[in-house]
Backbone:
């Protein structure tokens, strides 16, 4: 895989931003359909822009005795880690940085989300916000270990931590074929990491918004936009890890990457609507008793296959 | 300036509306929900998210300071409307959007009584002096804080309201630095007190009121909680008493029978199915499942608008079937808020709740709604007259079988529950405080 020059650092946010706007528009269309309203294409595409403008002209609020430094840091961290994680994300054969430890870099950036949401929840000195922060830490404890075993499975099969290397190793058979469990667990945890539904308890309606409860104006825009970015990046990473990256017949690799990412993202957004918000007091048990053993077995099976083949 | 104006106009195209219901406001809230769905405007969940606050139902002296606090937490541009008449909802939304597009900041009573209007305006002026004097830099210093404003119940008391005692009755709009014990505390808040938690550890206790100005929460209900982390250690139930007697929306057909009119059986059935659907929609929203919640709300509104059974039945049956098959939802609500049959009986629950399997939990309660919906649905086009023996006299409300007992058992069900579970338990009991009328409420307080 080739690395592109430094100016691509400016292109990356634009590409991801566009992808995020499309994802939000798709979600808005699904919502409108559920409400029995046919939404026109222009209407759904305008919604994300309108929301952004609405929040830009909106007032920023500060609560009494808020810890402003932690609060603002937490809010800004969310989109920043999404962008940093996306540095190793290949589009076709091109990535901003194809690090030798790409998978580890990606995972390290994701884990910063724990700190980000906790700080954003703690900062405003507000009960429901704080409870939202707690909830995300509990959620992290549930999803993170299965997530890591899923990542390890892909890295083991390719024999490298370089994302480009993992894509090359799938020129024949995609990893999803012989590690379906890892793929499914990866997607589950990707959604949980971006705390989007059904894993949206940290910002749940029952907490009046939880970690985002007190955010308004540009702070809300940065935080909520960052969440969407995080979802897009985490889901997009499943393509190089499990779905063969840019490999595919006829079409150029970048187009394959885009198509596969769009398909997975659409599936994730559509499936979300099939489930209510999953609370960690119930899910943690499943994560530890079912998902961790399953992903360990998956990693074991992959390891044995790699050694014997 | 031109640009700012254009941006404001563009942003006002899809305002987020914080819809709050107080006793007597059911019809208005339903009309507003229909209108929001038609326009595709989202319902806000907290004041910080809202552009527009809509208070449905008659206000009252106790509500005014709470509204003042909540209003101060809404970022500008913002519009407030207090509405007590369902028919004016569409015009109100148009008007509110126009005002938002030109900068908002209106504290307006659109169709309420003049007197209330004055009270509200006063609250607004107080706000100008307090909250807004210190926001030169565009940051809105929210001085509402938790200091002593226990009446607020904004979103369950958004602020961390130290360890003070909610019996003190500080529910005035000030909120500036109550320094308990004369110590200088950050932001004028006192520190949280401590108490042993369920594992015997000494943990901070926070006193947080849930309701009454909380979306997806029964109108007029207030639960004063003592929280440790997100676990409810203590819960005390109170009811926001309205000054005038309100007539419940859900038993209106029976009251008309009482006043001598002839009312079709179908109309009663319609109202009851719609009532269950309303509870179901609220419960599903709290459970974080927006799609079927919207489905239930749509069917409810069609029924109330007079749609014939064959128009509504197919979609409603699909919804019921979908929920019956919803294993995830069942798994999430099983074992929450278990009410033993003996306790249900002693509290005075009528058949509806006891019929759900003995020791009914939240799951049993929402499943009972499904059964009832399926049972009553075929009767909505029945044109024979409602028998007079079930009639209600004017001014009298039905003792909604759920209401009083539900409030009586709430504290014991909520204690020890996590906030998420507590919200689900309240939503599954869906007490209709309005149906209590003014007199029964006092008997419940302090239970």
Residues:
């Amino acid at each position: 895989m080739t690395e592109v020059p430094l100016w691509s650092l400016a292109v990356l946010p634009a590409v991801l931003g566009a992808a995020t706007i499309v994802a939000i528009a798709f979600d808005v269309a699904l919502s409108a359909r559920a409400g029995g309203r046919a939404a026109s294409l222009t209407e759904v595409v305008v919604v994300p822009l309108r929301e952004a403008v609405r929040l830009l002209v909106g007032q920023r609020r500060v609560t009494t005795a808020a810890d402003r430094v932690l609060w603002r840091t937490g809010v800004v961290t969310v989109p920043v880690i999404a962008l940093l994680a996306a540095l190793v994300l290949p589009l076709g054969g091109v990535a901003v940085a194809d690090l030798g430890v790409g998978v580890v870099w990606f995972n390290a950036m994701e884990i910063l989300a724990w700190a980000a949401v906790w700080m954003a929840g703690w900062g405003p000195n507000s009960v429901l916000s704080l409870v939202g922060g707690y909830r995300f830490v509990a959620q992290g404890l549930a999803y993170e270990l299965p997530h890591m075993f899923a990542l390890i499975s892909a890295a083991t099969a390719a024999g490298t931590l370089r994302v480009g290397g993992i894509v090359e190793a799938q020129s024949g058979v995609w990893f999803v074929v012989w590690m379906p469990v890892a793929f499914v667990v990866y997607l589950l945890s990707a959604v949980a990491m971006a705390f989007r539904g059904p894993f949206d308890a940290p910002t749940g309606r029952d907490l009046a918004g939880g970690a985002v409860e007190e955010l308004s104006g540009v702070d809300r825009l940065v935080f909520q936009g960052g969440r969407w970015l995080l979802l897009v990046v985490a889901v997009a990473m499943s393509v190089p890890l499990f779905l063969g990256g840019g490999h595919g017949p006829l079409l150029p690799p970048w187009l394959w990457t885009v198509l596969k990412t769009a398909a997975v993202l659409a599936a994730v957004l559509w499936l979300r609507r099939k489930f209510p918000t999953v609370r960690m007091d119930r899910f943690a048990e499943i994560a530890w008793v079912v998902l961790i053993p399953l992903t360990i077995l998956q990693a074991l099976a992959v390891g044995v296959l790699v050694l014997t083949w | 300036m031109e640009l700012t104006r254009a941006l404001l106009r563009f942003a006002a195209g899809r305002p987020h509306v914080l819809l709050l219901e107080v006793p007597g406001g059911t019809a208005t809230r339903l009309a507003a929900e229909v209108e929001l769905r038609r326009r595709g405007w989202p319902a806000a969940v907290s004041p910080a998210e809202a552009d527009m606050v809509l208070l449905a139902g008659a206000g009252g002296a106790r509500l005014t300071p709470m509204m003042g606090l909540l209003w101060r937490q809404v970022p500008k541009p913002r519009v407030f409307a207090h509405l007590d008449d369902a028919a004016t909802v569409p015009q109100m939304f148009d008007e509110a959007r126009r005002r938002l597009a030109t900068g908002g900041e209106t504290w307006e009573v659109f169709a309420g009584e003049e007197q209330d209007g004055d009270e509200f305006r006063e609250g607004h002026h107080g706000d100008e002096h307090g909250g807004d004097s210190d926001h030169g830099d565009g940051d809105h210093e929210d001085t509402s804080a938790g200091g002593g404003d226990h009446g607020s119940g904004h979103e369950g008391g958004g602020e961390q309201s130290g360890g003070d005692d909610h019996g003190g009755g500080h529910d005035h709009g000030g909120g500036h630095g109550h320094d308990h014990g004369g110590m200088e505390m950050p932001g004028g808040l006192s520190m949280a007190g401590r108490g042993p938690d369920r594992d015997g550890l000494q943990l901070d206790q926070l006193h947080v009121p849930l309701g009454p100005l909380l979306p997806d929460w029964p109108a007029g209900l207030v639960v004063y909680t003592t929280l440790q982390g997100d676990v409810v250690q203590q819960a005390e139930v109170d009811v926001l008493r309205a000054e005038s007697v309100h007539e419940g929306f859900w038993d209106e057909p029976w009251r008309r029978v009482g006043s001598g009119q002839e009312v079709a059986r179908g109309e009663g059935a319609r109202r009851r199915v719609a009532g269950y659907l309303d509870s179901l929609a609220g419960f599903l929203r709290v459970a974080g499942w927006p799609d079927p919640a919207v489905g239930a709300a749509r069917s409810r509104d069609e029924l109330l608008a007079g749609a014939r059974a064959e128009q509504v039945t197919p979609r409603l049956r699909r919804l019921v079937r979908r929920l019956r098959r919803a294993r995830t939802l069942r798994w999430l609500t099983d074992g929450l808020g278990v009410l033993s049959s003996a306790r249900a009986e002693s509290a005075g629950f009528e058949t509806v709740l006891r019929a759900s399997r003995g020791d009914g939990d939240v799951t049993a309660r929402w499943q009972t709604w499904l059964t009832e919906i399926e049972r009553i649905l075929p009767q909505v086009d029945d044109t024979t007259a409602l028998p007079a023996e079930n009639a209600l006299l004017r001014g009298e409300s039905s003792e909604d079988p759920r209401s009083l007992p539900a409030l009586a058992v709430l504290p014991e069900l909520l204690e020890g529950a996590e906030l998420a579970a507590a919200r689900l338990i309240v939503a599954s009991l869906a007490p209709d405080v309005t149906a209590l009328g003014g007199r029964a409420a006092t008997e419940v307080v302090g239970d």
